Model the fold of this input.
Amino acid sequence: MINAVGEPQSLLLLGGTSDIALALAHRYARNGLRVVLAARASERRTAAATELKNLGCDVTEVDLDARDHESHAATVELAFAGGDIDIAVIAFGLLGDQERAWQDPDLALELAEVNYTAPVHLGVLLAQRMQSQAHGWIVALSSVAGERVRRSNFMYGSTKAGFDGFFLGLGEALRTYGVHVLVVRPGFVKSKMTSGLEEAPLAVTPDQVAEAVVDAIKAKRELVWVPGTMRVVMSGLRHVPRPLFRKLPI
Amino acid sequence: MSNEAVPAIKPSLPEEQPMIPQPLVELHGWGRASGTMAHLAQIDSVADAVSALRTSDARRGVVPRGLGRSYGDAAQNAGGTALDLTKMNRILSMDAAGEPPTVTVQAGVSLDHLMRALLPFGLWVPVLPGTRQVTVGGAIAADVHGKNHHTEGSFGNHVRSIDLLMANGKVRKLSPEGETATLFWATIGGMGLTGAVLRATLALQRTETAYFSVDTNRTTDIDDLMQQMSERDDEYTYSVAWFDAVTRGRHMGRAVLTRGNKASLTELPVKLKRDPLKFVAPSLGTLPEIFPNRMINKATAKAFSMAWYFKAPKHRTGELQNITQFFHPLDLLAEWNRIYGPNGFLQYQFVVPFAEADAFRRCLEMIVNSGHLSCINVLKRFGDSNPAPLSFPMPGWTLTVDLPIEQGLDKLCDALDAEVVGAGGRVYLAKDSRLSAATFRKMYPRLSDFLVVRREVDPEGIFNSDLARRLELSKPGIGGAA
Done:
């Protein structure tokens, strides 16, 4: 349970090698914090586990393959084997080559599966667990790209639009069971996912996203934009007429 | 929520017991800081309690709950069942002529109810915490203490027998001596994790009046206070100090020390002699749910602390005070915890041995200099501890502060924990809402004695709570120790 001063006892990071998820784990890290890293087995996962262990955390590594739907139930089962999970973060996702993606059916399917189908499947599995423990947070890392889907990255944006809607709705459904869902809409995050891309305006670091998540959980919020000004920008963009919107350099 | 795949706790128990409703509601402690949802089962009889045990989700367990005055998560059980025992509130029998006199009550009887019933017979509840709005069951489970700890010990010292509903659905009578003594003492201060107290027999004291003869002293700083308390505490049955936790520098820890004894009939003025056992407990009403966060801020905390300090006389002896004035000024306002706003607050109470007076001073300094503001602050000297492995009091200095939940409070509490552990002290579980399992283990060296008993009487960890999961008092696999 998250205690009276806002410290969780346990974290589950689905996409446990994501920069944002790890930044969040580092913010919460303290002696005795139980962290479950769910990700594909990799050197990066081992390194992340070692780093958290050095901070006094009690780390378990669990295999997660977003595209292997059959394995999800077992992954969640293992993740909860050590006891209640206070905060579960859905942090995995795929950006992909956007121009290739809308022309390559296999890549399009992969994006849809990793960014939407798998989060929905895992989200429902998590919801069942959290419902029976009657406390906890699901933190869903969405994106401003889903707020108004644009030509330049509509493959990614459309998956995040679905993702965002699902988790906002899940949050409503879980309200009466004492379970909270936080949807996080960061703008451009300087992370391994965006490495090599040109930095967009209002770019943030993974740690800034993590800080916003910590604050939002403390304040029991359901939706947070990072940075906060993104909300203003996007509500403007949302209402730009289509002929004009397509001419914008975004 | 579907309960289908949920294993019933004791399918072997008789089926004819009625299934009692268990609505899912939010339960929080008095600090209102970290509530969770649990199935609240209204218990009207032993059969109800057994039925609730039988039908609850074995993975989440059950916790007994009284009036919800524990500050933290002791009577919360997320996703499980809470047994609301407040309707089991009958006083069953009394032996006023005995030596000592005794009373047998159901666990849900509040100390308020009990005092009102006993006073006309000239009988007195020997240990009273800072509020009368606690149940006897809760007072036993938390082993509460009062201003007379240095002379009378804690609540458990006065319990003569307990009827405990155990995890196997059977009720067992326990006494402080003999073959049931180990389970008896594990239940005292056991936070409801050995079973549910259903009834108890308490030893009482006799009294001629419901008034107290009180001496008040204002002290200039913390050293003055500790010296005055050390010198003459033993002359008084009751002793406690309120201190200023806001003022820094030369007057840090200035305090109002109040000490007293029960007034005898001859001490009362004629007017009060007409009804010497009158229970004076006025109510100013209920605080509404309108307060924002940060009601306790620099300005209000300073003003309150100044006023509280200077309104007290510098030195006064023999003042007569009634029960509310002397014991329970906070009971004047129902739901006073709402003043802290929706974020709630936590109470930090610790004790360190007398030999560690320096560590005690350092803790006080840390609090005063932290920028976190507390108005309701209590300082006291404890007497001997009792045989209960999880009982809080031990010979030493205890200090209590009420801190609104603010940014950085976790750091202050962690720093205090480190100092307290270093001094061989501990914090009080009935107040706690944040301690980590590792720190808790360092504070309660007799934890293993408790766990041995718990494993024996409740091997599956059916009695469970948010506190039990947080402090890893539960069996692995049902949401506790990793």
User: Anything to note?
Assistant: Residues 239 and 259 of chain B are 4 Å apart (CA to CA). The longest strand of chain B covers residues 211-219. Residues 211-435 of chain B form a domain with the Alpha-Beta Plaits fold (CATH 3.30.70.2520).
